[in-house]
Fold each of these.
Amino acid sequence: MSKKAPNYISTTNACKLCTPLGACLAFKGIEGAVPYLHGSQGCATYMRRYIISHYNEPIDIASSSLSEKNAIYGGGPNLKLGLVNVTQKYQPKLIGIATTCLTETIGDDVGRYLNEFMRETEGTMPIMVRVSTPSYNGTHMEGFHAAVTSVVDQLAEGGETMAGNINLLPGFISPADKRYLSEILNDFKLDSTILPDLSDTMDGPAGTSYKEIQPGGTPIASITSMGRATATIEFGRTIGEKSGGAVLANKYGVKRIVLGTPIGIAETDAFFAALSSLSGNPVPQKHAMERGRLLDSYIDCHKYVFGKKAIIYGEEDQVVGLTAFLAEIGIVPVLCASGGKSGKLAAAIRDVTGDILAEQPQVFEGMDFFDISEMAEGLAPDLLVGHSKGYPLARKMIIPLIRVGFPIHDRMGGQRILHLGYRGAQALFDQVVNAILAKKQDDSSVGYSYM
Amino acid sequence: MEGMLADRQDQVHRTGEQPFTLVCNKDSLAGAVSQRACVFCGSRVVLYPIADALHLVHGPIGCAVYTWDIRGSLSSGSELFRLSFSTDLQEIDVIFGGEEKLYRALIELIDRHSPKAAFIYSTCIVGIIGDDLEAVCRRVEAEKGIPVIPVMSEGFKGNKRAGYTAACNAMARLIGTGDTAGISPYSINILGDFNLAGEIWIIRKYFERMGVEVVANITGDGRVDDLKRAHGAALNVVQCSGSTMDLAKIMEEKYNIPSIRVSYFGVDDMAQSLYDVANHFGDKEMLEKTKKIVQEELTRIMPQLQIYKKALAGKKAAIYVGGSFKAFSLVKAFRLIDMQVVMVGSQTGTEQEYRELAEITDPGTIIVDDTNPLELSSFLEEKEVDILVGGVKERPIAYKLGVAFCDHNHERKEALAGFEGMLNFAREVYSSVMSPVWRIKK
């Protein structure tokens, strides 16, 4: 088996998105915020279309709509005009400004523009947070984390520590995951700030009027108080050292706890243990029961999944969590691939599977779907686990695709997929088992009526 | 409209309330949240359906990944066009230039896929760092012996219309390089149909039944070799005038090929399109065949259409589409099922088109250029609209307001062109407007 990463110059069917998209999503999870792209008009529109196709929710992303003239003489005037117009039309509490490859390359100094602008407008404008997201550097996840870091860095304040209050920076999770995390923290009797929070802004109820800005999101007052929390939990074994949690630790001495994205029992146990320790409360009975039922189902179905081979792809931290989960139920991860390039993926996967797997899967960063497909041919996987862009490969190989993460463009309800915790593992587990059973049933010449 | 940005007010007109004035074809206003994309998008959507060409996006990953398999264009053969190719420029390429990476990526992809031609799309950043696309394309073309054509589609160099022009200029370099021997004097190119949900196949069948040879599909289910000999056709039949009219003009100047504007949406315009082509050739037998086709098709669909008409009569529709030419046909199509259009707008319409829309629409109809979610939602509320026709970005606006929706954009999976397309269109409208979900109390 080849252990060498494919090394092509060209990219075909990328397994990543660009940095400003991640930043826009992070900003969208803040109360009263409008994401704003300093760039040409197309970026905002493309990202909106891409995001809408997943959530089936409106997302208004404003743009400086730079033209050729602005590209030559600088985008400052358009930036200011755009901010004035957004403020007038949306009356936001916060505008999250992300740059694009265009404005980074022409050398627009957004920080200077904004300082000038704040002086000129003398406190009449909403809060403005800026983040540098050149799309030639990193993936949407770097953009997402950079936006979270910027928000924390620019808004959080210090002061007297609030006992029993923690920060949770979960990364890019589904609205369903966020709602469940809130429930868990409540059950542990912890006050918390979860940043960002897309659970209402990108999964809202049917309405009777069109809201300028969808209600929900992390309250700005809570973000301001993040410097006074007792600890910050961050999900993601591959996140960098410039994270929001690191900022809070460095500036205000808030204890930083980095955990793996809690997918599967082992990673979730670690999360619950941390919550127990921070709250001083044992794991609530409700969650202990959910864990028990989950384990019961693992046992009931272990034979059907044992030894099945899976390819896992997508965002790095999600891949790590999914791999941990699949390994603990007896599935053999044969390839773990991401378009991201943290340099930490292989080590993170070894950390979560080392005591289960006799042999480590092939783990590659910087992969696209051409690479994944090429490798898949020699690996004979039984299933794919990842977002909907793996569908062509699943179709070609005639194997099930377990749809997780973002984007889900060919099915409904991407925002309601639960991945995290015992409950998320239960949902994923049932899906995985049933996909394998369905495949066996469909392929069978008799079509069993019982398992 | 209350609360509308001052700089946007001259881009809205209400039919009959004052003499026609409407400002359009200008850059989108910063901060207004336009529904438009960019120059690159314009080029990409026009050239995308050329199925056996390699479409390589030279830029950072976003531009390519957001346009991966983006259209519902179908191919009768090659599926190469559905792959998303990019040079995925990195910081180091931005600093030192991306030409070498582009060259190596091109060679790699051409060796891998053996395409009939390659289109290389320029993006914002390439326009800034100044990569010489022409030079790289010439070099690869010489080495590989296939046409390698740069598409000058830097995102910031105008709006979507500029992208259409760039796409037309790129196609013009292919046309005229093929052998035109054996092409019938009764021959056409179909311009401006993108074979969404197989629409161009429906249209081609009509022309075949009339005895007209289709030389090239431009661009739905398009092929490089057909494009190369497109200058051998006797007539260019142009739909969606915004996107391919420039190419028709180039071909008229260069090869003296006349063109006519048509629309395949709605029965009136569909029938008129076939008659216009028959009349152009002035062949009696062809005209008889055309009459027969129209009669047969109408006989087939009209009884079924009546069912929808009965249910939908009196309902109100709003239209927001990419190019305003399509809006004309939609206004007529709604009339055919007794529905009233109360708002119509587009991303890239021309003043002439909007003026004509003002002439054919009922008094009080809102006509709007380059609108945005907040304006659109206020129009839908003000006019108490029953259904919005638009694309993916407009869909959640309608749904959040409890308004039905019909996808008439390039991702649609239902064929809406041709006579049977009218029936599908009515069914689409019917299946959203008549759904019981709107009755459930919010």
Amino acid sequence: MLVTSPAFKDNAARALESPGLQKALDRAKGGFLSKRGAAVAGLPEFERLRDIGRDIKNHTLQHLDFYLEEYEAKVQGAGGHVHWCHTADDARRAVLEICRRAGARTVTKGKSMISEELGINDHLEAHGIQPVETDLGEYILQLRNEPPSHIIGPAFHLNREDWEESFRASHTDLPKDRVFHERRDILTEARSRLRDKFLVADVGITGANFLVAETGSSVIVTNEGNGDLTQTLPRVHIVLASIEKVVPTLEDCTSLLRLLARSATGQDFSVYTTFSTGVRREGDLDGPEEYHVILVDAGRSNMVGTDFQDMLRCIRCSACMNHCPVYGVVGGHAYGWVYPGPMGSVLTPTLVGVDKAGHLPNASTFCGRCESVCPVKIPLPKLMRHWREREFERHLTPSAIRANLGLWAWFAMRPSLYRMATRAATGVLGLLGRGKGSFRTLPLAGGWTAGRDLPVPQGGTFMAQYKRRQRGARP
Amino acid sequence: MSRDAILGTIRRGLKRGPLPEDQKAMLRARMAAHPRHLIPARSRLDRAGQVALFIRNVEKEFGTVERVPDLAAVPAAVSDYLAAHNLPPRFAMAPHPELQGIDWSDRPLLEFEARKGAASDQASLQHGFAAVAETGTLMLPVAGERPTTLNLLPDTAMVFLRASRIVGAYEEAWDLLRAERVDPLTGGFMPRNVMLVTGPSRSADIEQTLELGAHGPRRLHVILLDDDPAALPEAVAAAPDLRPEPARHPIAEPGEPASPGD
């Protein structure tokens, strides 16, 4: 997928000006939060489960090589194939080769973020194979030729009128003047369109929420049932999964599943949680005859043993972006790649380079809500801070910011000078703003006052007030 | 080549080579023991409580449940349910001996075929392997007698389930599968596909508003056979014993490999 992260600032400015996007973001505000809140309140053990989830993932990552090899052996035992792919290129090649060998003309797909990362659709299309997205949100994005803006609600940024417009433009064999009375009419039209696609597809491609080493299973979690139709009806099933999806046992997976749906959609459990293990058995009446797992690295193994290893615990629930004040106003597209919000701000620089994605870890107020809701307790603000430090060390930060940071650091390391300077500034500002309450404009501070007023300082610096109170508090 | 590159990079990151055999043996022992983690207290109920919790959760997720006293009552339950929803008296049935053994003759108007699901099916009757009270979830492992397509293609999915097959937590359902199934291909217990189904299909992709019947069934109806005397509704009224059940399995510390003796 094309990376537009270097243009984050422009992307964000455009997003703030887009009435359609702002309408969609406003509508969504609160929904995810209250649903998650209710689901978490309904399970008193949730906090303990977060520790368990973190520990399961940490245990797996410490033995990642071992569990991947065990997993591979089990898949092979169930008649499946594991294709290890070090790079995105390797993965695209492997998928295309399987599709070609199957003589595929149409390929149905369940929603998969790794597929977006790899750009599988473009690659198949370029080679004459028609990919069909079957998740409702992904389907309309394919019609509109847009990337997803949210990892579990890909069409998060669209409004009902966008759906109607796209369906009229794309389903041209239906009467032009048909009326969509309700949202369910839109759903029904998509359902009947996609039914036919499911039935003729030669290959089905899904992602995986987990891989289970104990049994060699791939696990998908959906509400629509499209992923299940995708992996059940065609003769060939391809699973796209990155290496950090593996967990040791069904019990480990089950504990993580208790966290996933509650953190994501606020459901106690998603409608379909399905474990796929190898090929159709003798006597089975349905299911694929070929089962392939594309095991994708694409930069992840480099994170093992670094500051960013914690990020490999991520189970892609989207709670961090749902609770992020920055995501809440700029939406997902501004982040410029597959993964938006706080988890994207950590992952994108890792996978595409901090030189391209350096703006993302800066687009945070460090309010810490993301970490406080993360089901596997990833210290997201700390990891974003690591990126800021590296960006600074590698001289990627713009020179004006570097100069100001340097000046501030010089003062900060000389406390008496620092206090003298702040005392002087407080005094001057207090004098200038006497009787005003706040400044609407201020020389050299246009960046601040363009969006809000600056309150006039009152009653001396923090340190001065602190000292006074300490004295007063002493008996 | 990719395989070596990936495993090599992981090992370099972990600052070690391949795990020594004794450590591998320890981790394999943990997988073989598959220790449980925390089981939420909500499902630690007596039998009647678990069945009631299952029903409550199915209904919370927009499914429906009808309790029947014996197998002979199943045809009437199916027939009445289809009629109540203005559906033709026709359905695709799982070719399961238990369903095929039912005497369907007292509802001669009901037509059914024992087969996998087809795109044109309006209704299906699946055989439930087990169910989990914790979230009202059905466990439907594929087999010749339990095709996956019956869970997905029909507009209205009915599932026959014995009350004695309702357990509290997912872990207990996994243990039923482990104990009862031998896979012809792997010799393990996992079939090709295990679906955990909680309510009918839905989507919230259009303006984050929930609509039922996305790609899978619009309706999910459980026909629950009351074959467990301890779980009858009368028993709830008679003995509301909600004491938590003692843990029957070793509970490992999170993330720690259980010792092989556990």
